[in-house]
Amino acid sequence: MSGRSRWRLAKSLTIYQAALLIEGYDPAKFEDSPPYNWHPDIKNKTAAVIHALRSASEDGTIKLAKEFRSGEFDEYLDLDRSLMRVDDIRSWLETAGFKDGFFVPIEEEDDGPGDFLSPFYAPKLAAANDAWKAVTSDKTWLRGRSPKKAIELWLKENAARYGLMNKDGTPNATGIEEIAKVANWKPAGGAPTTPKDNGGLKGGFGKTTPPLSTSRGEGFSSPDLDDEIPF
Fold first, then answer.
1. What distance in Å separates the CA atoms of residue 83 and residue 66, rounded to the nearest whole number?
2. What does pTM read for this prediction?
3. Which portions of the sequence form the region Disordered (predicted)?
4. In principle, which of 5, 152, 161, 186 could form an S-S bond with 24, CB 3.0–4.6 Å?
5. Looking at residue 192, what is its pLDDT?
6. Last-in-domain residue among 43, 67, 96
7. Is residue 139 part of a domain?
8. Is residue 106 part of a domain?
């Protein structure tokens, strides 16, 4: 069981811990680092989820299991100490239609390559499978890009979820390229075509939109991809 998967044993979490898990990070790596010291990329990726969780707690959508307030004059919710029940977080995500891959599975699988709890969990195979599903179900990923390039971009954006990170916190380019080769359905290459627009860009909470940036920095180290790549 990987470090992130061990958090499935928790019954309640802080808002910061929940946000990190939703975005694919292991909260254990941030225990000694307050949020204002997080890498800018991690702050950007978790900002919307932290805001949504805090708003849900303040308007009563998610009832806090334990509440802490801070501030000498103006009291505010302490996001690092207040606790939410895992079941409530999961229900909230399901109601929003948001599949994060941790609280709410991206696909219901039984002991398959994408099942974190399976003794046969294969992160590279899961990454290839999920990347293929993502770019084929949302054609905006393929706008002006070859399938391989679209898959690589998706994997870079989700590298932390599959341990595709170098020790310096950057995405593992070699591992991502090799996984993209496996998921690429047009290995012969060819000029990319622009898919037809069926209703415009998909957006909103829980929806996938193509990334505008291919930033390599993620901030903190994650489990390295096996050194033996290529396969």
1. 5
2. 0.49
3. 186-231
4. 161
5. 59
6. 96
7. yes
8. no
Q: Do 38 and 92 lie in a common domain?
A: yes
Beta bridge partners of 201: none
Instruction: Assess whether pLDDT exceeds 70 at residue 209.
Output: no
* Residue 150 belongs to a domain: yes
Is the pLDDT at 101 greater than 60? The verdict is yes
Same domain, 35 and 80: yes
In one-letter notation, the amino acid at residue 16 is Y
Is the domain of 83 the same as that of 193? no
Q: What is the mean pLDDT of residues 20-37?
A: 88
Instruction: Specify if 158 maps to a domain.
Output: yes
Q: Quick check: 1 pLDDT over 50?
A: no
CA distances from 38 to 51, 142, 197, 217, 220 (A): 16, 32, 37, 12, 8
The distance of Cα 35 from the centroid of its chain, to the nearest Å, equals 17
Domain that holds residue 219: 112-231
Look at the block and give the residue holding tokens 């622009």: 194
3-state secondary structure string, 160-180? Answer: HHHCCECCCCCECHHHHHHHH
**Are both 40 and 70 inside the same structural domain?**
yes
Segment holding 85, helix H or strand E:
strand 83-85
Query: Tokens 């990334």 belong to which residue?
Result: 211
